[in-house]
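Collaboration report, partner site 2.

Our partner group contributed sequences for two proteins of shared interest, and the home lab folded both. The records are reproduced in the order in which they were received, starting with the first partner submission.
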Amino acid sequence: MTSVAGQAGWVPDEDDQPPRPHFSNVEEFVTTFLSPHIQRNLGGTMTWCSKWWKHTEAVSRLTSLWMAWEHQRLQGATGMSVWWLHHADPHMNVLLSRDAGPFARCKPDEHRQGKDLPCTPAPPNMWMSSAFSDTGS
């Protein structure tokens, strides 16, 4: 996990260490916090896969939610409200979407792997002018 040093709400002094994460990993966050707090009627327009950890997009989104939660918990009065409105709600809407989410092919207690987005390789020199390319300076 990246350090929270330099982020709003926490400024280290010479002897201070960054706050330790509340959860040790994304699985602990999902099983002990998110799952008990997100109690939705699955069916209709929502679905979930109990093997969420087999879905690359889900792992990325849930890890992002966890990291955002770890940051927002240190923000005081409105931190959790910001997390729910600007992080949890949008990500959970995508994750739980029966039609378009990463679990769309799964059935209750039955994991089905989705397919990668189709990709065609870019032309050989397309990324040469990228702002992130190594310029040797």
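Second partner submission, folded after the first:
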Amino acid sequence: MRDGRGGREPSPLWLKASPVIFLLIWSGGFGFAKMGLEHAEPLTLLALRYALVLAVLAPAALLLRPPLPPSRAVWGHLAVVGVLFQTVYFGLCYVAMKSGLSAGGIAMIVSMQPILVAILAPRLTGEVVTLRRWAGLGLGLAGAALVIGVRNELSAESLLGPALAGIAVFAIAGATLYERRFGVTCHPVTSNAVQYAAGFATTLPLALAMENLHVDWTWELGIALVYLVVGNSLVALTLLLAMIRRGEAAQVSSLFFMVPPVSALIAWLVIGEVMPPVAWAGLALAAAGVAIAGPAGSRMRRS
């Protein structure tokens, strides 16, 4: 966003804190999703999650009466991002976890998204990814791999789960680049409502066709749904899309290198999983990579 004098508007305080908040909430989502999948099939869990999100957004929309998207094109762009994020990315991730891929394993695979974004961003969004940013992305990947590797998160897993997670990486990278190129700033309630409606409209038919819709209603499922609806669906994704609009795609995507290490750190703090000293070194390496791949690591092409 730019001000009337052609300069970039200063970022609000909440946006400056967004990376930390996003990382904490997003990193915890893999574990809570794994918890929920113990009590529901993957697409059924997603359809239920999106229905609850829309139930939360409906009264907010009636109360706030936010402006609607200004054109059919904007409606379409919001829907495309919603399908890529909610149906394709999360659908594949949930099916992968249900097939046996661990939460840490899928976090590790998805953390490769920044490399894909960095490769595609110059052609699709006009960003020039410099050698400094490539170095940061490489350090981030190495640090994330080190953390997960020493914790043996990727051992003894079927090929189906990693294959689905690999396709999911393309989905979230595509959503990131599409949002960066075509995204238009809308009221958060409006954009979330359209995107989750698109996700629900495409996920529910798949669940009806492929699953029996059985749900084991337990308190563990309730806790998982609260976290996934409020944390991942409403807070984390809103912050992610805001950061994408205000920053560059490769810079924002570099945050995903921190997800596996932060997931490991949260597990250590919350449930006492011990991190070996080498894993702490990996955490520091990933953090250094994200710092190097920051704003100074890329520039926009001039027309």
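Feedback sent to the partner group on the second submission included the following. The CA atoms of residues 39 and 218 lie 8 Å apart. The first strand starts at residue 127 and ends at 129.
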